[in-house]
Amino acid sequence: MAKSGVLEGGPGLVAKTMELKRELHKLVKVIVDDEDVNLEAIDKAQQMLSALKELKMNKYPSLYFHNNSRREVVSGAVPEEFKCPLSKELMRDPVIVATGQTYDRSFIQKWLKSGNRTCPRTQQVLSHTILTPNHLIKEMISQWCKNHGIRLSDSAQYLDEDALTRDDRDQFLSLLEKMSSTLSDQKEAAREMRLLTKRMPSFRALFGESCSAIPQLLSPLSQSKSQNEVQPDLHEDIITTLLNLSIHDNNKKLVAETPMVIPLLMDALRSGTIGTRSNAAAALFTLSALDSNKELIGKSGALKPLIDLLEEGHLLAVNDVASAIFNLCILHENKLRAVRDGAVRVILKKIMNRMHVDELLSILAMLSTSQTAVEQMGELGGVECLLSIIRETSCARNKENCIAILFIICHSDRSKWKQVRDEENTYGTISKLAENGSSRAKRKASGILERLNRAINLTHTA
């Protein structure tokens, strides 16, 4: 007699299949309708397809063995989509990160607590560190375990290991008091606060329990008439502590909306050690995970000092600065602000000099939805630069960004078609991309070629 349940074709299977199909239909619509390539939607769609395949194939009817009358999981038999990419074990509490990848909560939390800001599987920089429960996968794992007589370990062992003691709280209050004391006390307290907020995520959470904690932390900076009066090491420790606080998801709104924070971060972008400036940019990047913070940071004028720091080109700061600009420009109003503040000129100049091409092309592609940005690219020699990158680079993503930008430039400025035609006649650059590029690159390249052919035919007809 066959067992009932999701893997055997009963009502549970029908319901689960329909739910997966509904989610997949939504994701496919997002992928098709989005002019850009929505990698997050693609990743999620792949997960849905894998799950549907498992349900259809009924591939795991008896993947357990008996040991003292208790059924246990055979590690190699667990469906891959049920395993955490970090632990390679069956997930107890699956959560989704910003890139759309799913991990077991305890293992991805340890990854993030260690200071990592990338997705372990894709290596993409995380636009935020919010962990969203993957209820669908969790329910499927639960049903799979039920069908196979498997009992998951007690989740109690995954509770936060960094619970604070009363002494920790007393130390926290003592350090805040020292921030309004002598310079030596301030420097000692700021250094200790920086280390504690880096090492103990729970210590970061303490700042959310009092509305006065962040102003107390910042008091040495807010009381100074000029950042030049602040000791460089004290300045860097305080700004870095702000960065550490902003990593904690529950702090993001509180930190950004504390009136003195963004102005002080903007001052830090302009002055202090390169470590201070880089960490100020990283803090703005982390805070901008929230849409409300994107708007607040953009309105505060933070894009201009970020662009200025990008133009200076400090190697230690450029990645954090580029990440912050990219994240902020997801908001349309901030794209316009970035263009107004000279982002196109700065970015194109660096790309022409082959500096940080990968990161900056992504920003330029995002800005290309602005007509003003497109006009500036054409005026500043963007067409020639982008065509040369397509010829030279082996990076599919860079080719894709270049041809997408060229497509927009050429369709908004007919005078640029001659450059494209000359490039095609000399090197066949567009034709090669139309044949060998990614699906999006092929589509854009083919669109340009069709336009070129129409223009040639019209000329011959005339």
From TrEMBL:
Asked whether the UniProt record includes Transmembrane among its keywords, one would answer no
The GO molecular function terms of this record are: ubiquitin protein ligase activity
**Per the record, what are the reactions this protein catalyses?**
S-ubiquitinyl-[E2 ubiquitin-conjugating enzyme]-L-cysteine + [acceptor protein]-L-lysine = [E2 ubiquitin-conjugating enzyme]-L-cysteine + N(6)-ubiquitinyl-[acceptor protein]-L-lysine
Q: Which UniProt keywords apply?
A: Repeat, Transferase, Ubl conjugation pathway
Q: Which InterPro entries match?
A: ARM-like, ARM-type_fold, Armadillo, RING-Ubox_PUB, Ubox_domain, Znf_RING/FYVE/PHD
Task: Name a biological process GO annotation.
Answer: protein ubiquitination
As recorded in UniProt, coiled-coil segments are none
Q: What is its EC number?
A: 2.3.2.27
Which pathway does the protein contribute to?
A: Protein modification; protein ubiquitination
Show where the U-box domain sits: 77-151
- Stated name of the protein: RING-type E3 ubiquitin transferase
Species source reads Olea europaea subsp. europaea
